[in-house]
Input
Amino acid sequence: MPEAALFHGWQLATLAAIRDETPSVRTLAFSLPQWSGHVAGQHIDLRLTTDDGYQAERSYSIASPGGCIPLIEITVERIADGEVSPFLTEELSLGDTIELRGPVGGYFTWTADNPAPLMLIAGGSGIVPLMSMLRTRARSADRRPARLLYSSRNFDEIIYRGELEGLVATPDGFSVAHTLTRGAPANWNGETRRVDAEMLAKYAFPAREAPHNFICGPTSFVETVADRLVALGHQESAIKTERFGPTGETR
Output
């Protein structure tokens, strides 16, 4: 791993900023006493301890662009019956501290010096580590062609919608295709079904261009999309996956 991705043990992170992304998703920005940097696609571990000593630990993808930056952002979807996400999205306030360690992970990562076209495929909150990659790419002077295929339940649940529109408006070889699986507004001109082989053939880079494919989302989504990419001729070695379970934590 690059020197900027050295791992640190548990430390107290201070909540420095809050931003709502959707009605149920919130971005939290933390300052840390030590942070030597991270690579896009890595995650952090977060630990909560109750007054009686009970601990709950979760992993969250880092949304911030890679490198050594002042604030580390995570984007959390509130799960109604979750153990951790309701506290993070409803109770944690500016100035509060929480235990955090990282960065963690070296497999599902991307750096701007990768020469291959960048294909990103996200389901729901699986957009978070892919957004880190897009933000890293936007800060790079040498931008490889990049595409995002993003599946959301409905229009109001598209995370980072405004920021993605801004990235598309910059003529630097990036495009995004949205699909909504549980209803679309009247003026919607995107797709309206689950990601299938036809959609991948339409929006993904063809296998002959040897793209670097990243897929993140619920387990069934990730496995289905990966299998369909292989069926379209992509090499398994060119497909990296990250999945999460019902609580929304990465695995």
